[in-house]
Amino acid sequence: MKMELDKRMAEAVPILRRLNEAGYEAYFVGGCVRDLLMGRRLSDVDIATSAQPDSVMELFPRCVPTGLRHGTVTVLEEGKAYEITTFREESEYEQHRRPQAVRFIQNLEGDLLRRDFTINAMAMDVNGEIKDPFGGVADMERRILRCVGDPDARLQEDALRMLRGIRFASMFGYSISYSTWKAMLRHRNLLSFIAMERVGSELDKMLSGTLPAAGLTLLGRSGLWRHFKQVPPLNRSICAAEPFGNQPAGTWPAALDLRWAYIWISLMADHEELRKWLLHFNFGKQRVERIAALVHMNAAAVELIDRSAASQTGAVYLDGWIDLLLRFGRQTAMDWIELKIETGEGLLPAMTTEKLSELRRTAEELSVLSPADLAIGGDDVKAVTDKPAGPWIRRLLGELVRACAHGQIPNTKEALLSEAAIRIEKEQT
What does the pLDDT average to over 250-278? Predict the structure, then answer.
């Protein structure tokens, strides 16, 4: 089978030719070959060769020895970087993740055998000729994800491959072969060896794909999530995600963090426990806070809707929304509105487009949300009383913020100082 090279591959052809002319085999390998056959945009162009790292560095003066232990050299050509890895076999794996040692070999098929799935175990030479010893092309035609060789061996070598399998199947709309699926179920307990940072990276990629709901369904049916080093804090099983069906990504929020929030709201996760769990992924505190705040705010919004329905008055609704803005901040509120608009009826509380527009307008127009927005500061408050400074100043400024936000007093120095004096006097009597 022969394919026309992609532009990015064509740019790398001189590298393969130089290796060939020096007497070595050299091929495009892995994901770039898979994506070319699928008609997908290539991300990275990886090259495998029979040349050992020292020989590669002799042929290419401008290079970086990025992973000599594993046979990888990064070659710099025409302002671009290409990873060139020597054909290799791998020894037994440590902690079901990393090989204890590698041995360089001269055989392409032996190198492809160590890879995870058949669709990632193909190679292509400079002429576009496909090397496919394990049936990756046939599996692509059948839309099946299958481990290379013995699935038990592949998954025991690197337990993260189970999550990668879920990701690939959901991204490409593939089914998982029976033998590979059964091996996943047999060895899913090995995921407890995998660092949560690696798990989080795979989940991010899965949720960024075209069929995130399909990935959630496979994750729920396989039960892999129960064997993470840190188990998710859920009030509902991930199997409950199956009502999402195979909704395409177009029916989901566009932003990745909003997708995370959508899932955990749907699975009724507690925001505090969720925050602790997400921190294990090393996402960064700011990102974790954004996701957890959305989950928390949605629960508060459901309570607000219930109170408004009981009171049968729009005033309670609007006052409650302003309180949510003060509590969670403008950015979280705007994220929540975006989440509601993009998921429609898929996320409670139910709300009309007109009502969401009103809430957005209020969030955009509200000018006082924190003490920094007030026309006075702590020193101004202290000047109207003989009371010694203390926590009462911060508390009083918070009360003034709420009064301004609800339109009870204007945000002017005169009005705020007058109100502050009244409240201080009330406290003292």
Answer: 90
Cβ–Cβ contacts within 10 Å for residue 363, how many? 21
Q: Exposed, middle or buried, 27 (CB in 10 Å: 0-12/13-18/19+)?
A: buried
Global pTM exceeds 0.90: no
Q: Cβ atoms within 10 A of the Cβ of 288, count?
A: 21
- Alpha helix stretches (DSSP H) within 69-177: 108-113, 136-142, 151-157, 160-172
Whole-angstrom distance, CA of residue 120 vs CA of residue 98? 18
Q: Which residue has the higher pLDDT, 149 or 352?
A: 149
Tell me if 301 sits within 8 A of 324, measured CB to CB.
yes
Q: What percent of the chain has pLDDT over 70?
A: 91
Q: What is the DSSP letter of 189?
A: G
Cβ atoms within 10 Å of 183's Cβ, excluding its own: 23
Please list the residues that pair with 102 across neighbouring strands: 90
Domains of the chain, start order: 1-137 (3.30.460.10), 143-251 (1.10.110.30), 286-365 (no CATH), 371-428 (1.10.246)
DSSP 70-90: GTEEEEEETTEEEEEEE-EEE
pLDDT of residue 94: 54
